[in-house]
Specification:
Layout lengths: L2 E3 L4 E3 L2 H34 L12 H9 L7 H6 L5 E6 L2 E4 L6 H14 L6 E5 L17 E3 L9 E2 L22 H14 L6 E8 L7 H9 L4 E5 L22 H4 L2 E6 L8 H6 L4 E5 L18 E3 L5 H13 L1 H18 L2 H18 L11 E3 L2
Parallel strand pairs: 5-6, 6-7, 8-9, 8-10, 10-11, 11-12
Antiparallel strand pairs: 1-2, 3-4, 3-5, 4-13
The structure holds uridine-5'-diphosphate (UDP).
């Protein structure tokens, strides 16, 4: 076989070899332009990056300021009354915790209460409404207005973000984690240990994802993986809503893969689910490179993570070929990939300890309480929550 090609001419034994080489040349020209854009993004991100203060959960403090800004004129009894049906009411009176007798998701309430109970001695009297659904409640354009605590939101909402229940318990139950994903303290230690046991050079050079189809934003990677299994291994698993293969994009559901198994892969993908997905913090601890798709859905610790420093951002509407290009970029620039992977790991390891989660809850509730314009009186029907 003889194929001699340059930009002007192509000599080959047969035409189809010629076309293939020309296609590849065109692809690499386009890739080079794209790669230049990625290098520029990294350069700009590095120039403007200011490492945050690692002490006393300061890396996340500005999220509290931002979320409470809308309530800077004070929180009245009427304002809380407006939104009391949006979640579960909690009261703190004389360092004791009380709650509505009903909680929509009891395990989620327990996961939340775990953190509040341990900081009670430092908290003043207050009352607040906690939304335990996945979806935020206070849209900026329509509906009721008032202070509602939610674990995740996008910029379209005024909800006040709190650390999700799943840091302790109440996370989604899957076959691998039948009691629900929780105990971040244990996951942290396990993942960090595994991350150290699998050297970067031994990680499988594929873009990896396992999860259910909670958002179609996951489709392009799953489809790319079906076309190019050497580049990506991304498959849909069942969730509780699964009825037919249509819910796994017309494929048999894949087996679930533990967080630890994820660490064997060099490139890990994170996507939104219904709101933010809990996997982001886990996969960042693998010391693998994380691709984070979409920037709309947040948890309280996301703003501390910077694109091109701690992860590679991917547009929520990225096509298969745009994703392919990004993966090709990191495969061709291993040192960059490794540096971003290490940065992402370090950010979570240093700033998302259980201590940081408790610290965030404490700062958040203390600052919220300062805005209350009335002294809460214990409701008649509340129950006391104890350890
Ligand atoms: N998960 C997992 N292994 C799997 C599938 C899911 O560890 O094979 C975890 C996943 O990381 C997430 C949770 O289970 O934290 C639920 O994942 P799913 O994709 O079903 O929904 P999501 O919450 O991401 O929208």
């Amino acid at each position: 076989l003889v194929v001699i090609c340059n930009d002007q001419s192509c000599i080959a034994d047969n035409k189809s070899d010629c076309n293939k080489v020309e296609r590849e040349n065109k692809y690499s020209r386009e890739s080079n332009e794209k790669f230049k854009e990625y290098f520029d993004n990294i350069k700009k991100a590095k120039e403007s990056y200011q490492p945050c203060d690692k002490t006393k959960c300061r890396c996340h403090s500005n999220v509290i300021q931002d979320d409470l800004k809308r309530f800077k004129d004070g929180i009245t009894k009427e304002l809380v009354g407006n939104i009391k049906t949006k979640g579960t009411k909690y009261q703190i009176i004389n360092h004791k915790l009380y709650r509505d007798p009903e909680c929509m998701f009891p395990a989620r309430c327990s996961g939340i209460e775990h953190f509040i109970l341990e900081i009670l001695p430092d908290l003043p009297n207050m009352e607040f409404i906690v939304n335990t659904r996945d979806w935020p409640q206070i849209h900026k354009q329509y509906g009721a207005f008032g202070p509602v605590f939610s674990f995740s939101k996008s910029n379209d909402y005024y909800d006040i973000m709190y650390p999700a229940w799943a840091f302790w318990e109440g996370g989604p139950a899957i076959e691998l984690y039948p009691k629900g994903i929780g105990r971040w303290d244990i996951h942290r230690k396990q993942l960090s240990k595994i991350a150290d046991e699998i050297p970067w050079e031994e990680k499988i050079e594929k873009a990896f994802f396992r999860g259910s189809r909670t958002s179609p934003e996951r489709d392009p990677l799953v489809l790319l993986s079906r076309e190019e299994p050497d580049l990506a291994d991304a498959q849909y698993t069942k969730n509780q809503a699964w009825k037919t293969d249509a819910d796994t994009l017309h494929a048999v559901p894949a087996s679930e893969i533990s967080f630890a198994e994820h660490c064997k892969y060099k490139y890990l993908f994170n996507f939104r689910g219904v709101a933010a997905s809990f996997r982001f913090k886990h996969i960042l601890l693998c010391k693998s490179l994380v691709f984070h798709v979409g920037n709309e859905w947040l948890e309280f610790f996301y703003p501390a993570l910077k694109p091109w420093i701690h992860y590679i951002p991917v547009d929520a509407k990225a096509t298969k070929s745009e994703i392919r290009e990004l993966v090709e970029f990191v495969k061709n620039n291993d040192a960059i990939a490794r540096e971003i992977a290490e940065n992402g790991y370090q950010m979570i390891w240093d700033n998302l300890k259980m201590k940081d989660v408790s610290c965030y809850w404490k700062k958040l509730l203390k600052q919220y309480a300062k805005l209350l314009k009335y002294e809460p009186v214990m409701d008649e029907n509340v129950i006391e929550i104890k350890k």
